[in-house]
Amino acid sequence: MSQLNNPSQWATGADPPTDKQKGFISTLASSKNVSVDPSSLNKSEASAKINELKDAPTQNPDASAGEPIQDPDTWSTGDDKATGKQMGYVAVMAKKAGESVPESMGKTDASKKIEELKEKTGM
Description:
Layout lengths: L18 H14 L10 H13 L28 H13 L10 H15 L2
Helix pairs in contact: 1-2, 3-4
């Protein structure tokens, strides 16, 4: 088994969880209707909890993803082409808002457009 697949063997596994891990655990826990204090976990435990929650059945499909963990303007990959998921979200919400769907965008612009369209559409 690769060390990547075994968080308990990570050199930093005993460190506190990252902000991204804590945010993802909170989002997953909300959608699964379970209570988890991500701050009580280390990186290794947080990784295992994420996998556990991802496999659990969703109990609350309307759970909000919450606020972005980082400001999109600070993303090192913000100028890269938007992901397929981002473009899919933009397309669905733009159509609902009666706006034209952009052909392409960078990751940062797509993230900002998603937030703008969430406000307009209530999605």
